[in-house]
């Protein structure tokens, strides 16, 4: 993940190529298609 994002913090989450840095619950729900 460091090579992909340059970020050393956690979490870095890759959902279908969309990278999310940190725990962004609304963004994660959007990417997963959840309400």
In summary, what is this structure?
This is Glutaredoxin-like protein, YruB-family. This protein has 35 residues and is α+β, with helices and mostly antiparallel strands. Helix content is 34%, strand content 23%.
Explain the layout of strands and helices.
Blueprint: H1 2-5, E1 12-15, E2 18-21, H2 25-32
Antiparallel strand pairs: 1-2
Protein name: Glutaredoxin-like protein, YruB-family
Organism: Candidatus Jorgensenbacteria bacterium GW2011_GWF2_41_8
Strand content: 15-25%
Q: Write down the overall mean pLDDT.
A: 88
Largest sheet, if any? 2 strands, antiparallel
Low-pLDDT residue intervals, each spanning 5 or more residues: none
Side-by-side strand order of the widest sheet: 1-2
**Rg to the nearest angstrom?**
10 Å
Whole-number count of domains: 1
| Strand segment count | 2
Helix content range of the residues, please? 25-40%
Separation of termini? 27 Å
- Gross geometry: elongated
Structural class: alpha+beta
């Amino acid at each position: 993940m460091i090579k992909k994002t340059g970020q050393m913090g956690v979490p870095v989450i890759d959902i279908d190529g969309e990278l999310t840095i940190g725990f962004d619950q609304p963004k994660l729900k959007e990417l997963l298609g959840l309400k």
